[in-house]
């Protein structure tokens, strides 16, 4: 069906209906708690509705005496009668009283209620989706939103310093997904990425997390992998809400403190409870530490400085020991909601959130630079080891604080008329900032060294110094001092207006819905870099000369890392470093050219406006529901970046750094259809054909030029980049259990066009890039890529087991994905290149026990290997993140109603984060590239109040 015929068909469906009315009402559990996701059906018709926040609205109900049936997993179905008048609204409220008999075997009712709410909403959703209720988030130790999402079928996370940060949906790169707050997009504080770092949002802030793996036309189209929508809390009817957490703990590595304090309170006011207010706050401090090994490998196809007789083997460029003695992280958040109920379940609302994430790090590095120095050469290379002469060894310290803030505000309303027509609207603003107020890195260097490595044991790679000193501070002279100030500002203004009305379309009846939306973005990145490459000061002997590391160190013996397995050596004191810089402001010589070009390369601005309109229908006929529709989005982009030109000698600018602008305008059309066939009350078959896009990363689509003296490659932007588009096919079968649980299996296939990747080309003669740059790296659009896979999930309370075993339960899921991308010029015949970020395997296994006051949980999270980055120069420089399996556990004991003591432990397996550069099978039989990061376990104990 063409887009035009689909739109005409939907419009023809909008014929007015006679002798029909509307039924509205609320549905609660025996304690008055609103039930969301309740399936409400009108007997003898195809009409059905689902509750949201405990209220429902059924349209197109034939006039006369009607019976409505209410179905909810965990409760026995209830049927109630109501009289419907033509063109009028009838009210029918229901309190579910009879729980399933199997539910009585489980004593921890609050968690079961949360699980049932999530599964009921998942069952009644128009899309293929997963839903997490706020009461489920705390079942395992998941302090931020990314950690909570990692437990969901089809979802994996990228980690930073051991904590979840970015979300991958069904194997797609995190940049191919979108994040929303109450249906409106959230700005991102990341320097170049559109993706929201989910670790900035505390998990306690959400009432519900909705993961849509297929899209409907009333959703933003820029979500090829899927959309994560965070629904904040609102005051519930009949019962005030109060919950609080007070907890503390420690990190095993470094012994730093953990503090978790948070509270939420909400209530409805007045005799009719029309006004609702909710407020909440969180404070989470994590004083972490980490230790890691990093490596960079040079393949045999590149110029590695290896002697001609040894070129059959690869060799490392760099081997680093890293110690992060201080990784102080703070998450603080505030959220509030006011809502006012009008007639016919209509309402007005005002919402606001504030979230802050700060990361204060001290990093020390010991760097074996095998290829450092103009005279370095390899004298021996075997499959597992090698020796190089004339090399360099660096020691440096970086002091870095990152502060990310996100502020959102929304105002809107939902309005329902007695004739079944509805209107909803929302206006929102979102502002995200990242500040790096003073990133300070000082480096000392020792040259003319003989270095060696031995990677025979891939879990214990080694490097050594045979000529020179490993940690004598008097042998390390000043190399560089770099100060950077970075600021990112991302401002969004969003608005949407939706309207719906009852319609009939042949054998189908339902609603026709249309709307318009706009999102106006202003983004700005600024970088101020000052690089000093020489300094004078006072050395250890008190003489004036080149500054030595000994002037800044207080250590008399070297430290160890990895539990004593590695000697890290002596390093210098961050406080002494800062004091020395402050006391000797004129002792450093500024490298003007490097400072200018680096600053210009990180400064740009983007203005992006997206205007959208859509038309869709929700049509029911018997057990079948169809949601066809089409969305149109028009995008207008205007950006500004800095252009850099070097003279022929590469010693100065050939002309002043200047602004350059680029513009882009395009329109995309997104037809889609979602279908649900209800086999029976507990079984759904869902299918979808949808289209989506992802727009280029911010700096990539600017016309910037970044070139550094002495570097063989320059990087430039590409204003001609097109958005990546996708056509997706999805199929899912779901079977829900009366005892609160489900089993599901599904498959998906995505056909991508114009995916973006970096490529290298020869420098053109008309490009003023100095004498050194011979190649240019630029993002371009690839032709096609395919991504496909399947997911299975099983979640069940095993209440059919005898005795105490009835408290057991399982939560297991697994997702397999594979992708094949056509990347021109890769030069690897017969080798398929996967899409960056595509995780081949991901899964979870959780075992839980709930009985009486006791609740116990053990969970395992697995993420398979994936391609992290594409190297523009050679496939053998690609980076891969290795597979990772992490075990967590938690337990609680209810000391009185609504109050429990709890304990939780994270990363019990002390699983490292591992990465490899290049093709690790092409190592001549040697070990993997050395890249590990260890954190050790951490945990806390505390008190949780839930009322």
Automatic annotation (TrEMBL):
The keyword Lipid metabolism does not apply. It comes from the Bacteria. It is found in: Cell outer membrane. GO terms for cellular component: cell outer membrane. It holds the Pfam family CarboxypepD_reg. Residues 123-226 form the TonB-dependent receptor plug domain. One of its GO terms (molecular function) is carbohydrate binding. Its main location: membrane. The keyword Membrane applies. InterPro entries: Beta-barrel_TonB, Beta-barrel_TonB_sf, Carb-bd-like_fold, Plug_dom, Plug_dom_sf, TonB_rcpt_bac. Residues 1-19 form the signal peptide. NCBIfam families: TonB-Xanth-Caul. This is TonB-dependent receptor.
